[in-house]
Amino acid sequence: MMPNSAGVEKFFAQGVRCGARPGHQGHGRRDIPDEEITRQETVPGPERCPYSGGPLDPRGSKARTIIEVDPVRKEVIGYELEQRDSTRCQHTFTARPAGVFAKGLFGVLIWKSGDRPLGS
Description:
Elements: H1 5-13, E1 39-43, E2 56-69, E3 74-86, E4 92-94
Parallel strand pairs: 1-3
Antiparallel strand pairs: 2-3, 3-4
């Protein structure tokens, strides 16, 4: 349950900090070495801002790696996701590769084995 705004102010006034403690080692995903990537793809970003409709300026790219599992073999795919900035609303947009969950490590083909989720 979320506290009301007065409760939030009191909570932070007590000096309580949110999140991990300083020096805490995170539990994020391990980096996959470049030599394990079997296919590299570049995903183009949008040309126009979905909020303001204005043009987007190139901002480089962002690396993203997923593991796609074929019933016979795995394929590690590295994506360069194009990023663009909106000059009108100051948002940055990153391209989204088709068939990839937002923060998942595995691609959607893992669900296609026998047209049912694995383990069922």
